[in-house]
């Protein structure tokens, strides 16, 4: 039986049988409403306790000490890229650059996933993006970009590795993760 809590009623799909004294059918055949007192504090406490038990059983406790996603900053031109690379060299951190375009669906879909990945490496690597339609073409040529999305890892002022993301986003993220782990010290 699947349950969905809704204000003062519980909505559920019946699997095997119906008890006509407890269930008032909505007429759809298998979606029914059961009137219960869901507003009581005891009910809410029991729900919260059950959620805690399920999380403990699954070994799931969210890490609230760091953000779930780290917003990537844009790169505007070659001078800006030079300053970023110089700062990263001083801190001996790699720089990940997502070369994307606003018209590219895969680029738009991949960006939030990269921002979630950036939260995992917030102290070890810096993440940026370049919208190729909003920057001078000299910057795009400097990155040697021919396909999008392209994710490059730069270290010590030069491009060390890249992933061209023309396939599934989860595969791209795994390839980017492996690429970062090679160069993170």
List keywords for this structure.
5-stranded mixed β-sheet, disordered N terminus, transport, Glutaredoxin, 5 helices, 9 strands, 185 residues, alpha+beta, 37% helix
- First-residue to last-residue Cα separation: 50 Å
Share of helical residues:
25-40%
The CATH C-level class name of the domain at 73-184:
Alpha Beta
- State the strand order across the main sheet: 5-7-6-8-9
Query: What quaternary form is this?
Result: single chain
Q: Give the percentage of residues in beta strands.
A: 15-25%
Structural classification: alpha+beta
Task: Calculate the mean pLDDT score and round it.
Answer: 79
| CATH architecture verdict of the domain at 73-184 | 3-Layer(aba) Sandwich
The H/E string reads EEEEHEHEHEHEEH
SS summary, helix count: 5
Which parts are unreliable, with pLDDT below 50 for 5 consecutive residues or more? 1-35
Question: What would you call the shape?
Answer: elongated
Describe the main β-sheet briefly: 5 strands, mixed
The CATH topology of the domain at 73-184 corresponds to: Glutaredoxin
């Amino acid at each position: 039986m699947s349950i969905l809590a809704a204000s003062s009623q519980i909505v559920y799909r019946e699997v095997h049988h119906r008890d006509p004294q407890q269930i008032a059918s909505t007429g759809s055949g298998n979606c029914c409403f059961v009137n219960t007192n869901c507003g009581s504090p005891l009910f809410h406490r029991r729900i919260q306790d059950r959620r805690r038990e399920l999380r403990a059983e699954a070994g799931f406790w969210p890490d609230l000490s760091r953000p779930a996603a780290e917003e990537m900053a844009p790169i505007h031109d070659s001078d800006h890229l030079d300053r970023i690379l110089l700062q990263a060299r001083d801190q001996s951190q790699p720089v990940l650059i997502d070369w994307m375009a606003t018209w590219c669906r895969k680029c738009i879909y991949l960006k939030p996933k990269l921002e979630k990945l950036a939260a995992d490496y917030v102290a070890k690597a810096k993440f940026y993006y370049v919208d190729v339609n909003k920057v001078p073409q000299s910057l795009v040529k400097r990155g040697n970009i021919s396909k999008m999305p392209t994710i490059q890892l730069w270290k010590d002022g030069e491009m060390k590795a890249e992933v061209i993301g023309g396939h599934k986003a989860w595969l791209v993220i795994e390839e980017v993760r492996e690429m970062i782990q090679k160069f993170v010290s």
